[in-house]
Amino acid sequence: MQTVSYYNSPIGKILLASDEQGLIGLWLDTDRYYGDNLDKEYSEGGNKYLASAKKWLDIYFQGKEPDFTPQLHLIGTDFQKRVWQALLKIPYGMTTTYKDIAVQAAKDKDHLPIRATGGAIGRNHICIIIPCHRVVGVNHNLTGYGGGIDKKIQLLKLEGVDINQFKES
Q1: What is the tens place of the pLDDT at every residue in 78-105?
Q2: Is 127 an annotated catalytic residue?
């Protein structure tokens, strides 16, 4: 059974969701895929996975790097999971490109699935903790954030990233 809870953050209301294996979702209220992997029936409440995610968010929104990752249950294709695992490796306060993530996720290094990588990043169900906001275009474009570019900018600023080096597209 899935359980949901809400978190009020400085960038808006966040929906958190978990199942018996871990956190399955963290969506900003502006996310284009808001709650897209929730079952039709779920309960509202709390559990250890939601509590851990809220603790992580409390630390993060204080402008600090959390020293743990909540238990995650990634739901997606094998390729999506490889992309999301690559996202988890992006250091706090740093950025990388879609191409760099594609290189890490590709099984066939001669064929870089950059478009598919962008699609997988866009379908990240656990934003912020799986830091898709840290991915930028190869030409330093601030592009592609499901919660909105304004939220991406706020998250990068919170982490101390100099956003003046980027262009909005």
Answers
A1: 999 999 999 999 999 999 999 999 988 8
A2: no
